[in-house]
Amino acid sequence: MTTHGTITVMGVPARGVEVYAVRGGKVVAVAHSDPEGRFAVDVDAEQVLARFVEPAVGVRAATPGADGAVQIAVERADIVRLTGTLATPAGVTIDWIDLWLTPRLPEVAPRIVVAVGTENAQRPCYWARRLTGAGFELRLLRGTWAMWLVREEDGGLTAEPPLTLTLDTLLLPNGDEAEAHFGGRQFALDRDLQVTARVRVRTEDEL
Amino acid sequence: MPGDHPTAADDHDDAGLITVSRGDISRALSKRKPSLSELATLGAELALGPLQLAALLGGKADLRLTQEQADNLRASAASAVAGTNEAASDDVTQSASLCGSSGTPSGGSPTPTPAPKVASVTTTSSAFSETDAGTTMKSDTVGSGTVAIRRDVKGNVGTRAIVNAFALTYKGSDSADAHWLQFIHREIIGIDSAGTATPLVQAITSSGTRGGSYDLTQGGDATKFGTPVEANYNTDTTSSTDPFYEAGGANNRSAGETTIFDKPSAHAAVQTAFANGAVRVISRAHFDTFLVQTDKVTYHSSLTMTYDIASASTTPAPVTALNSAGAASALPGTIQKRFHAQFPTFNFIK
Predict the structure, then answer these.
(1) Number of domains comprising chain A
(2) Which of A23, A47, A74 is the last residue of a domain?
(3) Separation between Cα atoms, residue B226 and residue B235, nearest integer Å
């Protein structure tokens, strides 16, 4: 059976969106939507993931109907803005730091979200950007997100190790800290959000 | 330091040559005790054949230099012995004596030994202060020297206390021309509750090396190493111009030996593997380390440092295993391609 469908963003067919067809807890096929937003894969998928990077970053999942058809629509209200300011330790100047973001979907296993297509491989995160300034501003799809900030350089053993940084705290607008999540932070993004990401130097034996 | 002009020991003959007596040569050699590699280098500068060199070393001949040879010798000697013999007030006579030796003459051919392209290192360093020598995994004879590979070395680099480092040492009278060329490739593998192993795909940012990053190796699992391709290897140096580990990595060098020390981290990406469903993560750093002597690869060590991580909150001690080690004559093809791409000016090292 063929799994097929249409992807729209704000009512307009979305072209070039990567689609994962999932069956048995694995990605079994990958397709990209055509200029009319249509896609089709020659498998009987249990779940379909549409993986967006434009005009917003995020993942949407849907279950195909009995006929294999599925519609995925992102509306304007699904897109929110995340604005972040980096707070650095005294005396530390950051030349770059990697921002890693992964959406957490209740109905999708994390390993599927970060899978590298049908390969037996996964990425550390869904989306990454190397920051070279004091902050960031992104358009993301509404939902729960995990965030990491990582600066790590591989190199020889030296008396002065390269600057190694990690996300320490993520302050939400109400003053609360986002919950700790495997060296990063996890938070609900349900509206436009302005956060402060405080980074710290990672100790040598810390994961 | 070498004088700007010939001293009284020099004698200009009728043909315009500068003559250094066999007595002066003998005295200079006994005073300076230059290494064989220094002698070979200086001999090559003067384009002296093996028989000529042997005659000079044996005190059986005077040395006659053209002005150009003498000038070349001054320049070579100045760089080779700078800082090591301040009291010697080296004149052309003494420095000229150093050019003599390349060991036992091999026959009648006067073909000169080419000077090494990788400069001899006559300076010393002591970046790593050892407090525990660890365990020797392998010792081998290489040419006229020896190689030792150790694990679980403890010590200090500056104010950093280091445990579980590995070390490679070359000892030999020709150690000034011995350099360590090291390549790293890594793999990080998440293992879920069903035992399924999934390698991480990630570009690792490196300090110094041209290219800036290298990709994690794919194809491995809990017990099997992945298969590296060219993009997985990285020349392990902190310098963008000098590929040898000693360019910035911890190393101790003295007159008769050179040792490098290293200890990789598990890498922060391990955390994300746990976040994405792994219950165990294996982070392996593989090191292919080559001894390069006078521009030639002579030895290859392959070792792996493994972090087998059962919890996202605790970093276990890494385990170092030697995969293989022994004589070598060239870099393996995949590594050679990566090396020449990252350091094209060193493509004479094959």
Answers:
(1) 2
(2) A74
(3) 19
Note the pLDDT tens digit of each residue in B310-346.
999 889 999 999 999 999 999 999 999 999 999 999 9
Report the residue of chain A nearest B181, measured CA to CA. Answer: A156
Q: Which residues of chain B have pLDDT under 50?
A: 1-16, 27, 30-31, 36-37, 40-42, 44-45, 49-51, 53-55, 58-60, 66-108
Quick one: pLDDT band at residue A176, thresholds 50, 70, 90? very high
Instruction: Give dist(CA B83, CA B123) in Å, integer.
Output: 8
Q: Are A127 and A183 found together in one domain?
A: yes
Choose among A155, A157, A182: nearest Cβ to B208. Answer: A155
How confident is the model at residue A206, as a pLDDT?
Answer: 84
Residues A22 and A39 placed together within one structural domain of the fold: yes
CATH of the domain at A144: 2.60.40
Do A69 and A151 fall within a single domain?
A: no
Best residue in B168, B261, B265 for a mutation probing chain A (most A CBs within 10 Å): B265
Instruction: Provide the CATH number for the domain around residue A66.
Output: 2.60.40.10
Assess if residue A207 is contained within a domain: no
Angle at which helices B22-32 and B50-57 cross, to 10°? 80
Q: Per-residue pLDDT averaged across A152-178, rounded?
A: 94
What interface predicted TM-score (ipTM) does this complex get? 0.96
Same domain for A158 and A197? yes
Same domain, A84 and A110: yes
User: What residues in B contact A110, CB-CB < 8 Å?
Assistant: 275-277
- Per residue in B50-90, pLDDT (tens digit) is 445 444 554 445 555 544 444 444 444 434 433 333 333 33
* Structure tokens given for B18: 């500068």
Cis, peptide link before residue A55, omega less than 30° from 0: yes
- Exposed, middle or buried: residue B213 (CB in 10 Å: 0-12, 13-18, 19+)? middle
Q: Which residues of B touch A205 (CB under 8 A)?
A: 315
Same domain, A49 and A33: yes
CA B338/CA B329 separation, integer angstroms: 17
Which residue has better confidence, A60 or B44? Answer: A60
Dist CA B290 CA B303 (whole Å):
12
Chain B CB contacts of A184 below 8 Å: 271-272, 275
Q: What pTM value is reported for the model?
A: 0.79
Closest residue on chain B to A186 (Cα): B275
Cβ-Cβ contacts under 8 Å for B18 (sequence gap 6 or more): B6, B10, B11, B12, B64, B65, B66, B67, B70, B92
> What are the chain B neighbours of A202 within 8 Å (beta carbons)?
268
Q: Between A and B, how many CB-CB pairs are < 8 A?
A: 136
Per-residue pLDDT tens over the stretch B5-19 = 333 333 444 444 555
| Co-location of A55 and A85 in the same domain | no
Q: Give domain limits for chain B.
A: 11-98, 127-346
Which domain covers residue A153, as residue numbers? Answer: 79-201
Residues A63 and A24 in one domain: yes
Residues paired with residue A194 on neighbouring β-strands, in sequence order:
A83
